[in-house]
Amino acid sequence: MTGTIVSIIAVIACLILATRGAPFRDLGTNKTIQYAAIWGAIIIGLVLVIQLTGFRIEQ
Question: Phi first, then psi: what are they for 43, rounded to 5°?
Answer without folding.
Answer: -65, -45
